[in-house]
């Protein structure tokens, strides 16, 4: 089955700095890669996703890149703000059998200091 | 804008008791996924259901765990004879159809087994 590795497990940055979180996956058939943000005690919230036919996607301060050959994808947050502090999860899925069950990484705790 | 609803939000059970967790998907969504999140871990897929059908239960323990999604009413995850190792946050997610990749999560049920 799919295996997703995520690094780093914790990341501390100063407000205004950029943050990068990296994930690798094992199943070359995976074709959908979402990122979720989870604040303490809250639900995971989908913040951005990318499909395997695209190499990069941006949404304001957030961007995701995908390297299918190397089987890794990354989340980039620019101009970080204290409210970006949360745990971020990457996930991978293969949708081809008509549905997509997500395999998650173990998460990255991002701390943004004012 | 009613999102995915889960109840109860917190559930305390003694070892050997039964736990019933309920999930109402977003309006218009007929596909439900259940995930379990252990402390300091990512989310792990348990089961995928459509109305009246279990499509994929490959992530669910073979014993004591069952899930259903009846024609009317919420999806239910049932854990019989709970043990301390069942203590976790249980999240459900929903999507509108089998071809939609995005999954939207509920707030979770935090189960504590004493």
Plain-language structure description:
Chain A contains no helices and eleven strands. By secondary structure, chain A is mainly β. Chain A starts with a strand and ends with a strand. Chain B is mainly β. In chain B, the strands form two sheets. In chain B, strands 2, 4, 5, 6, 9, 10 and 11 form a seven-stranded mixed sheet that branches. Chain B has a four-stranded antiparallel sheet with strand order 1-3-8-7, with no helix packed on it. Chains A and B meet through strand 4, strand 5 and strand 10 of A and strand 4, strand 5 and strand 10 of B.
Q: Which residues of chain A form runs of ≥5 with pLDDT under 50?
A: none
Q: Tally of extended strands of chain A?
A: 11
Radius of gyration of chain A equals 14 Å
- Structural class designation of chain A: mainly beta
Reported for the largest beta sheet of chain A, the result is: 6 strands, mixed
Please report the two chains with the greatest interface, counting residues with C-beta closer than 8 angstroms to the partner's C-beta. A-B, 25 and 25 residues
Helix segment count of chain A?
0
Give a count of the beta strands of chain B, DSSP E runs of length 2 or more.
11
The ordered H/E elements of chain A are EEEEEEEEEEE
Question: What is the helix content of chain B?
Answer: under 10%
What percent strand of chain B? over 45%
Give the terminus-to-terminus CA distance of chain B.
Answer: 36 Å
**What oligomeric assembly is this protein in?**
heterodimer
Which geometry of chain B do the CA atoms define?
Answer: globular
Please render the helix and strand layout as text.
The complex is a heterodimer of chains A (114) and B (114).
Chain A: E1 4-7, E2 10-14, E3 19-25, E4 32-38, E5 45-51, E6 56-59, E7 62-67, E8 72-77, E9 86-92, E10 103-104, E11 108-113
Parallel strand pairs in A: 2-11
Antiparallel strand pairs in A: 1-3, 3-8, 4-5, 4-9, 6-7, 7-8, 9-10, 9-11
Chain B: E1 5-7, E2 10-13, E3 19-24, E4 31-37, E5 43-50, E6 53-56, E7 65-68, E8 75-79, E9 88-95, E10 104-105, E11 109-113
Parallel strand pairs in B: 2-11
Antiparallel strand pairs in B: 1-3, 3-8, 4-5, 4-9, 5-6, 7-8, 9-10, 9-11
């Amino acid at each position: 089955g799919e295996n997703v590795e995520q690094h780093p497990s914790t990341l501390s940055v100063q407000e205004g700095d950029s943050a990068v979180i990296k994930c690798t996956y094992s199943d070359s058939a995976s074709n959908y890669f979402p990122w979720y943000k989870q604040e303490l005690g809250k639900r995971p919230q989908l913040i951005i996703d990318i499909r395997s036919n695209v190499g990069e996607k941006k949404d304001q301060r957030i961007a995701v890149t995908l390297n299918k050959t190397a089987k890794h994808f990354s989340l980039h947050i620019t101009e970080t703000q204290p409210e970006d502090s949360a745990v971020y999860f990457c996930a991978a899925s293969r949708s081809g059998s008509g549905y997509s069950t997500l395999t998650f990484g173990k998460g990255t705790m991002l701390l943004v200091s004012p | 804008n009613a999102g995915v609803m889960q109840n109860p939000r917190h559930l305390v059970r003694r070892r050997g008791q039964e736990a019933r967790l309920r999930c109402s998907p977003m309006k218009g969504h007929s596909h439900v996924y259940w995930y379990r999140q252990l402390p300091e871990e990512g989310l792990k897929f348990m089961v995928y259901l459509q109305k009246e059908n279990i499509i994929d239960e490959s992530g669910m323990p073979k014993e004591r765990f069952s899930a259903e999604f009846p024609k009317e009413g919420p999806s239910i995850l049932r854990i019989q004879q709970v043990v301390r190792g069942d203590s976790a946050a249980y999240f459900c997610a929903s999507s509108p159809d089998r071809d939609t990749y995005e999954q939207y999560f509920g707030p979770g049920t935090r189960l504590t087994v004493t």
